[in-house]
Amino acid sequence: MKQSTFNNKYLPYVLLVPTFFILVVFLFYPAVETFRLSLFKIHPWTGAEKFAGLYNFIKIFTNGDYLRSFVLSAYFAIVVIIAGLFFSLLIAILLNQKIKGMRFYRTFLIWPYALSPAIAGALFNFLFNPANGVLCYFTGFRTWLTDEKTAIIVVIIAAVWKNLGYNIIFYLTALRNVPVSALESASIDGAGPVKRFIYITFAYLSPTTFFLFVMNTIYAYFASFGLIDVLTQGGPAGSTKVLIYYLYKDFFVHSKIGYAAAESLVLFSLVVGVTVLQFRTAGKKVHYQ
């Protein structure tokens, strides 16, 4: 086979220029600018900057509302991750069976991932809206989105449903890579279906589960804004005001630019820290076959 070579040694670098341009303009520069702004007090009307050092960060961690949002975000993320992975795996196992019309069922259960968060939020608003919600009409309970205890539940259900398709796709692919011979051997040795799933099937699924664990963490912290904005706008009484929505309100509504920049760094550091912790703990239990 003839090996292709570049006659011009500068051509590879020229081809990489568009990629570097996008990375610098849309990733590196915003990251550096965010870090810089977090160290300044910025007037909301004139844009005048005054160096403040760590003032914004100190203000963040002495703000009771922000700390409550911090705890709420952790609770929201934990429930969304656990429930999302559990139901996705359960549905993927069912979809992996040889049943007539299974292609239709797979398409039907995967398509929610193609929807934008705003559209998904609008669908759930149609179901739970206190004025004309379908479920409100049939259940007679009209405070799904106006009660502090039930609003967060609705947002969690919507977030889990929105990401089900993404998780199911990966689990379906992983389930097809589980060797049938290993399952048959375990069955001959007397292992029941539960033991076969735990010691064989789930062992082969561990890399996929770990990957989805990390991706669902990022999703829960960063991609929930659209759902919350359409469904509850952070209410009632801040019961659904997670960190990403808190950041949006401070930047776009209250024009606290320096303060919001500090919040974005805290949120970014939190997610990176959680991801690193996942690699150091759960990552060691992953078995790559």
List keywords for this structure.
289 residues; mainly alpha; MetI-like fold; 12 helices; 70% helix
Explain what the structure shows.
- This protein is an all-alpha fold and 289 residues long.
- The radius of gyration is 24 Å and the shape is globular.
- It has a two-stranded antiparallel sheet with strand order 1-2.
- The longest helix has 32 residues, at 64-95.
- It is built from 12 helices and 2 strands; from the N terminus they run αββααααααααααα.
- It is 70% helix and 2% strand.
- It has one domain: MetI-like fold.
- The chain starts with 10 loop residues before the first helix and ends in a 9-residue tail after the last helix.
Give the secondary structure arrangement, pairings included.
Layout: H1 11-37, E1 40-42, E2 49-51, H2 55-60, H3 64-95, H4 102-110, H5 117-128, H6 134-139, H7 148-176, H8 180-188, H9 193-222, H10 225-231, H11 243-253, H12 257-280
